[in-house]
Specification:
With 132 residues, the chain is an all-alpha fold. It has 2 domains: 85 residues, 434 Repressor (Amino-terminal Domain) (Orthogonal Bundle); 36 residues, no CATH class. It is 55% helix and 0% strand. The protein contains 7 helices and no strands. The radius of gyration is 22 Å and the shape is elongated. The termini are far apart. The relative contact order is 0.13.
Amino acid sequence: MKTRFEPYLGAMPKRESHATVDGEPFGKRLAHLRKAAGYSQYTLADALGITNRMVAYYEGETTHPPTHLLPKLAKVLGVSTDQLLGIEKVKEVKQKDSRLWQRFAQVEKLPPKERKKIVDLLDAFLGKNQER
């Protein structure tokens, strides 16, 4: 005689993975986009207001994206949420110099007076190179 609980005694069915245009899992896509945007796990975590361990987790351990962070992730990485999720193909992103962008992030944290000095120096340097 079957009991009403018998259907639940078997293994839980596995979740189906959602098809993406590139066939790449979310974590790998996130890592690729992060590197292309010139971020390390530490700098991306700082930009998102989370720990670098969470970034590492999202890139490796989980197939489920952090829905509460999707809009912010997309904005920081310069892609749409559809591209981030693999619904749309990501246009090839030119890789940025991560060391340079890290320096810019450090400059942004300086007091206004110090930032102005650096901006003036950059303006002078860039103006000099444009005249050549």
